[in-house]
Design goal:
Elements lengths: L1 H9 L5 H4 L6 H12 L3 H5 L5 H4 L3 H13 L1
Length: 71
């Protein structure tokens, strides 16, 4: 999930090598969560890095990541 989130933030297709070492900033994550929360599952699936296999769980994973970043 963090890889998919990093890809979505950077607007690149899912590829670990493209986001290796990328640091997810809290404000970027907050914006992504807000953006995805207003989308249908099909629209989330179209986001680069998310795709249909992650579109139904990506918001939950992003929220969990955000909570982990607070500690």
């Amino acid at each position: 999930t963090p890889t998919a989130i990093a890809c979505a933030i950077r607007n690149v297709y899912f590829n670990e090598l493209l986001v290796e070492g990328y640091v997810i900033r809290r404000d970027d994550l907050d914006r992504l969560i807000e953006r995805m929360a207003s989308m249908t599952n099909d629209l989330r699936a179209a986001i680069k890095g998310v795709g249909p296999k992650r579109s139904d769980i990506i918001i939950a994973g992003a929220v969990i990541l955000r909570e982990a970043m607070q500690t």
